[in-house]
Amino acid sequence: MGKETKPTQQEIAMGALAGICSGYLFKKVSKYAAATAVVGYLAVQGASQAGYIKINWKKVNDQIEDLKEAQYFKEVTDKLADLTDEISEIITDEDTLLLENEGRLKATARRAYEAFKQNAATSGSFTAGFTLGILFA
Q1: 122-132, pLDDT tens digit by residue?
Q2: Whole-model pTM?
Q3: What residues contact residue 122 under an 8 Å CB cut-off, 6+ apart?
């Protein structure tokens, strides 16, 4: 596509530094989020056992079942709608559809390859830094 340039040491260093900072923050924040969830759960359970909170488990289970049914029907209707659209496209013009999809796939693969080729050093250094940030947090 364009002119290929070698990554500079500054790009690699910035990618690594950003990765280390992101990994460190990710691990710290996830620890606190997990601790907060556990403390919240224990507080609700303790309040329930002490009689401060009365949970209507039948109502909770009924609502969960209703949500499951609604989600299931939504997924089924979405899949049916998608299948109907696909079948109508295939029936109307099968050869054109196949050629269009093949061209889109090749174009997407080419763009992904070019983006990776241009940013490989920065992405790689970020990934390595992110891993180090998680390990040493």
Answers
A1: 878 888 888 88
A2: 0.47
A3: 7, 11, 12, 14, 15
